[in-house]
Amino acid sequence: MTDLGASCPSQAQMRAALQAYVDRINQGDADGVLALFAPDAEIEDPVGSPPKKGAEIADWFATTVAFGAQLRPVAPIRGSHANAAALMFEVTFQPDDGPRLLIRSLDVCTFNDEGLISSLKGYWGHDDMETLAD
């Protein structure tokens, strides 16, 4: 078992941050979600898309909230032997002028020494997305 070291956030801190991520998105609190991320954070969601940084992240969460995104974890939040944790969930949302969608995703996040999310990678593909009936 690897020693996490004194500067690495605890498993409890990382799990709490990811639970706050779920709660704040579900509450429509884009600023609260953004506060969970380090200023130099990077988001690649889905993996293979261009990474988002800085103002792009703030815009992305504003859009997420505007689309009425609701996250539902489908497994317990998982830790690691390092500064990373994972969240498996389903998200439903409705883009402007589009149908209601469901995406099944796995987000893997790394954390900095202060317990803020420094990177988020969302793992989902075309087969993990479906249109929902109104």
Automatic annotation (TrEMBL):
Transmembrane segments: none annotated. Residues 19-118 form the SnoaL-like domain. Pfam families: SnoaL_2. GO terms for molecular function: isomerase activity. Keywords: Isomerase. It comes from the Bacteria. InterPro entries: NTF2-like_dom_sf, SnoaL-like. This is Delta(5)-3-ketosteroid isomerase. It comes from Sphingobium herbicidovorans (strain ATCC 700291 / DSM 11019 / CCUG 56400 / KCTC 2939 / LMG 18315 / NBRC 16415 / MH).
